[in-house]
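worker-3 :: picked DUF6247 family protein
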Amino acid sequence: MLAVWRRMALLTEQDPDKQRQMLTAAAEIRQTGKPRPGSSSWEDLRKELGL
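worker-3 :: tokens ->
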């Protein structure tokens, strides 16, 4: 859990605007229940990665 927190802190430090965009996108997805245009489903991603 601490590793995840550190990774997010590093991302925020490196590019705060990109971090805000990611959080805004995540909030939108949670509120609407719809994926963002151009996104892939977990199933499609797994197939693409061969998992």
